[in-house]
Amino acid sequence: MNISAKSVRFDDDSMWVELSDGRTLGIPLAWFPRLLHAMPEQRQRFELSINGIHWDELDEDISVDGLLAGRGDSTRNTMIAA
Question: Which CATH superfamily is domain 5-68 in?
Fold first, then answer.
C-alpha cells in the first residue's frame, strides 16, 4: 500500500500533513529550515505527488516515507577544519 499526502497546512511552528490512510502528521518546521524561513505565501505554493511534497520556489522536496520515518532535512553544510 502506497501512502501519499492528501493535504498540507501550516501553523506558526508546524506543518500538518494529512495522509491517504487517514493519519495526520504534525512536523516541526524546525526540521526543514527552508520552510521555517519561508514566507507563509511561499509555503502554500507546493505540489503533491504520489511520493511526497515539492516546493519548486524553495527547492524543497519532502517524501512521505521520510516523514513517517521521522527524518527531517538531510541537507547539511559541511565545514572541514584546517
Answer: Uncharacterised protein PF10387, DUF2442 (3.30.2020.40)
